[in-house]
Amino acid sequence: MLAIGIDIGGMSIKIGFVNERGEITHRFRMAVLKGVSQGQIMKELGDLVNAEIEDAGLHYSDFIGVGVGCPGSINTLTGRCDFSPNLDWHDLDIVGMLSSSIGLPVRIANDANAAMLGEAMFGAGKDFKNLVLLTLGTGVGGGVYIDGKLFEGNEGKGGEVGHTIIRLGGRQCSCGLRGCFETYASASALIADTKKAMKKNKDSKMWDYVHGNIDTVNGATAFECAKLGDQTAMEVVENYEMWLTYGIVNFCNIFRPDAVILGGGISGQKEYLTRPIEEKLAELHYGFPMTPKVRILVSKLGNDAGILGAASLAFEKVQNQ
Amino acid sequence: MLAIGIDIGGMSIKIGFVNERGEITHRFRMAVLKGVSQGQIMKELGDLVNAEIEDAGLHYSDFIGVGVGCPGSINTLTGRCDFSPNLDWHDLDIVGMLSSSIGLPVRIANDANAAMLGEAMFGAGKDFKNLVLLTLGTGVGGGVYIDGKLFEGNEGKGGEVGHTIIRLGGRQCSCGLRGCFETYASASALIADTKKAMKKNKDSKMWDYVHGNIDTVNGATAFECAKLGDQTAMEVVENYEMWLTYGIVNFCNIFRPDAVILGGGISGQKEYLTRPIEEKLAELHYGFPMTPKVRILVSKLGNDAGILGAASLAFEKVQNQ
């Protein structure tokens, strides 16, 4: 059986036909144009999916269902996108519109929660039943997987791991509060901290690494220069890992996951990122050594995380029925 | 049907026979004497329960099972108390010993998690499917109830809500870290903050309230004097409620509970405590107003929370089978 995974982004919608092994057998995309109404976009999306099923020589009976990952505030009970700031969508009945145009069961989730399920079903979390995903990007997205099932919270609006406060009164967050986890642990935070450290330390090797152009600093700059032994870079990395670890301590004390999966560009640092966190964590979380060891893993789905996460929603729905 | 609820405390073990409406039909207790071995205590406990069943003229077939709430690190998979610092118990096979002596199914949980289930099944949470319990005492205990089931985390060791860091680098916590929620939101924290404010403000009405004896300050002092309009007391209360609210924001952003139940002596302040938190919360949690409204309630089980929580473990086990 196949599932249709629909990954809605700010610029385009990516769609894939996905088999039960998590392989994308067919993929296509649709642009999200400014000025086109939300209803029109849903109509075109349904038509496109129907046309691609036909073009691929497939039948509706080949599909188990459709999964949709969508940014913003998604109500999983009603199947509606209540509000998506980036897309400027309001109260859009995505499940209703797509299920009537495609004629298959449709399940929707917040995109970060969908990515969590994708990693659990097809990615780094395949061997575990209790997981937390942290995607380190502009903010910190992610989700929670409990007892072999995606945990989405009431109405599907939980799992906002990036917006847990770890330092009350601390850094200003885009959500309006101060001290949210993502203001310390996101890639944006790491980049800002890297630049700040460079400005204070003009002799840091990081200046050579970016050829004197501080605007090209990215999430790898401090890591790569720390590997070269640059003291300033090492401090930036240690500090960043400290923030990340303390945030993870909180999730461990609540969830006791088997593993925490790190995603986003920074997770490309692999063991260089995960090993220090795993070691610090063992010392820090409450009740250690009486609590289960928590592994720190890196995401495996890469660029296909969105499509596979969305498709996994359709597979999980059927498994649970 | 009846369940046997066993509430293990540092000084004594309280036991109750509980019916499906959450009424305690028979109760008794056993002292936990220093110097008596952990194995001996379990043997005596089993004998006592058997004798009380007989004395009450009941039969084993009247009972659905036994639930045990125990402080410390409890492994719900093995049924053992891995470590309980207050009792000085180590690797004690509570489920194994009690089920073989009593001859009924036994389920164990950490006492705070058991209390959560008790409130959900018989107390303030009866009408809700998604709950967080915060017991404001020496520390902050509590637990999480998700989708109509107790959430205990991997091995049953999760739900340590008091040990989530809300202010990294902040107040020293007994767990060794700094800035845990309980260092700001526990009754002990409120009492310490009250005393501090009194020492700074010798003309506060709180001095009259405690007849000049600062050692008698308790969790009600600041609340009662704030009601009389004392400025210092009002500041202490506002500050305390602010900490509590921010901690609750974190749990809302992860769990989106229908309600948060507050327990412990301070919850006796009822609306005076809950209304300001409910109002602040509506402004603060991420994604509001698109997320479900969270009610703030006070615990209803009072002194029987331990026995009823323990008994609820036995009832839930059967319901889920």
Q: Largest chain-chain contact?
A: A-B, 44 and 44 residues
* Distance between the ends of chain A: 16 Å
CATH architecture level-2 label of the largest domain in chain A: 2-Layer Sandwich
Radius of gyration of chain A, CA atoms, in whole angstroms: 21 Å
Binned strand content of chain A: 15-25%
- The count of strands of chain A amounts to 13
- As for the CATH topology of the largest domain in chain A, it is Nucleotidyltransferase, domain 5
Q: Output the strand order for the largest sheet of chain A.
A: 3-2-1-4-8
Count, helices of chain A: 10
Q: State the CATH class of the largest domain in chain A.
A: Alpha Beta
How many domains of chain A? The number is 2
Low-confidence stretches of chain A: none
Oligomer: homodimer
Largest sheet of chain A: 5 strands, mixed
User: What string gives the helices and strands of chain A in order?
Assistant: EEEHEEEEHEHEEEHHHHHEHEH
The fourth-level CATH homologous superfamily of the largest domain in chain A is ATPase, nucleotide binding domain
Q: Bin the helical content of chain A.
A: 25-40%
Q: What's the overall average pLDDT of chain A, rounded?
A: 93
Shape of chain A: globular
Task: Describe the structure concisely.
Chain A is α/β, with parallel strands linked by helices. Chain A is built from ten helices and 13 strands. The first copy, chain A, has a five-stranded mixed β-sheet with strand order 3-2-1-4-8. Chain A has a five-stranded mixed β-sheet with strand order 11-10-9-12-13, with helices on both faces.
